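Hmm, what's this shape?
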Amino acid sequence: MNEEALNLSVRKFLKKVGITAQREIEAAVREGIESGKLTGNESLKAVVKLEVEGVDVAHQIDGEITLE
């Protein structure tokens, strides 16, 4: 196994995940505020579930996103 190739591949994947997740969250929050579902001062529970096929990885990351 090439450690450097693995590291670069994982970093590339995580960058893609981070950018995509941020865009989706921001769009959903804007839509929620525009529709009146959110007021703009909430704290929202967030959960990310990570699975990697072929290896025994199943991990959940819990967090909170504050709007104010």
Remarks:
- Strands lie at 43-52, 57-66.
- The chain is about 50% helix and 30% strand.
- Helices lie at 3-35.
- The radius of gyration is 16 Å.
